[in-house]
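Every protein is a chain of amino acids, and every chain bends into a shape of its own. The protein below has been through that process, and both of its lines are reproduced in full.
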Amino acid sequence: MNGFSRIRSTLRRTIFSSNGANTSPNTARREDFPILSRHLSSYERFDLSTGSQGASTASLQNINSINNSLPHAPVIETTNEGVEFLSHNSKRTLRTIPGVFCPIALSMFSISLFMRIGFVVAYAGILQALLQLGLCFLILFCTLLSVCSLATNGAIEGGGVYHMISRALGPEFGGSIGVLFFFANVIGNGQSVAALVEALVDSFGPGSKASAFQDSHWWRFLYGTIINIISLITCLFGSSLFSMATFFIFILVSFVYLMVVVSFFVKGSQDVIIPKVNAYAYEHPPYAINASDFLYGHYTGFSAATFRENTYANYTIDYTTGDVMNFATVFGVLFSSITGLLAGANMSGELKRPSRSIPIGSIAAIFFVFFIFITETLLMAATTDRYTLTNNYLFLQDVNIWAPFVIIGIIAAVFSACLSGLIGASRILEALAVDEIFGSVLSWIRAGTTRHGNPWAAVIFTFILVQLTLFIGSMNKIAPIVTIFFLLAYFAVNLSCLALDLASAPNFRPTFKYFSWHTALLGAVGSIIMCFIVSAAYASIAIGILIGFICMLHLRDFPRASWGSISQALIFHQVRKYLLLLDPRKEHVKFWRPQMLLLVANPRSSINLIDFVNDMKKGGLFILGHVKTGQMDTGSADLCSQEYPYWVALIDNMKIKAFVDMTLAPTIRDGVLQLMRLSGL
């Protein structure tokens, strides 16, 4: 015990020693972190002089009391799993249900629940529809496990998955994936707006009882602009209004869906009107009709014959685009409709406990959503004939107990998805600006943030980009682009976690127990394969853009981003593995390579000699050796460590392939002997 006490006392003196003569071991030292100056401008060293739990708690309280006096300084807490997170911040007001579960469920319900499940059954049939839902679930669930591992890997701030990946992989990969996520959310938001316009025009457009909406490209663009402006105004009020709105919208949508399910069991056989906006059906009627007449499909109620009719695929023309559908295009439409997996993670800056809320809320939401989708697929296939499913994507209105229920549910769910996409994309853009990933280009985004953390400048810029996506046209035309961007983003997330796990990175220690490199590999392979199946051209363009961003960011410096890079961890992992394979007993003269040690006293006068030896090495090992004379005294600075960066800079400037080896010795002779003995492989 006495020996242990002496060791502990020595460590304590070493850790807490300082240059000042009057500095005591118990004095806390404050250091500045430029990259965290916006959120955590300083920290206090924990008091390690005692090993008791009470002392640790007192130190933590001391940190919190000091941080409370600092602007924007959050309170540091720890969970039972040991994960630190930032809470008690004025921005962090959301909990699991309103902040994660409801946004994810509503984002996935938005287009597909009332508008696109019938579309998938109409063309793909029951068997292929269930197959496509299974593929979607597999990719999303594997990606979700990777996201949960990132979310439980330490303190999380704003920016969602971008923040998690950039802190784990470095600014090059994190910034590139962040840009990819930003544009995926922007285009997905445009698709949601286009879907809401389509629902309004089909329900209240030409041929309907109301006939309140006109049906042309520019009228649809005008309706989309109005919806987008309403979303903008709502998002400018901040996340608190958004969370309150999404919770009530979720209750409303759930009630509407319950009424839809009840209607399947209550309503009997009836005819269903084919809307006049389906110009293709009226130009190619199955029977002769007058110009003023309507075409009708048939709702049969539960029928074995209807179920058999809808069992297999029947790919025909989509009346909204005029294109012939196939497995890839239908999968693209389905997957683009359920890309709200990261809607909860995008709100990480507003969540009270993101490391807890994101895994619990996301997993609960994805299982809940896919149970609803599978149930609805089977109900539609058993009750509605294929002609109705193919020519009226909003037939649920006509077979509901009260027709307005469905349009109310569509408006509520899709508008919620518009809000979620606009807020999520703006938060990612704000995080990119705060980290100065693109230098001063986005500085105006950082300046345009309110006291309460609402990035109004980022919201307005995102609104403008969403407006531009509306020029693409109908929802099904935007769908393949959305699918490609999100699949590629999910591929990047899974690949990131796979690299971190295989590299055994010490900074990757998630407390989420159900992640493994197998699920990350499965999610990455599934995402990239489906990416090329949906559209090889779009996939190639998106991958080219991603690689271009990675190369561009690799060439610039990041003064605020001192997070390290995964590339260095992977290089170290591989180099260490191959160095261990080098066996000196297997050396042979045929494969001999020179290992040259050049002792340099003054590099200024040895430039030519360094160049000469560099030319001589011929694929061998070249080491620049330098000896510093002196003694390694306790508490003195290491002279070799101070000069080492200058020698590395010399190698970079001379563009030679060499290593630097320095030592500290009492005499030059002793130092040279050390270098000769220890240098080389």
Remarks:
- Confidence is low (pLDDT under 50) at residues 10-88.
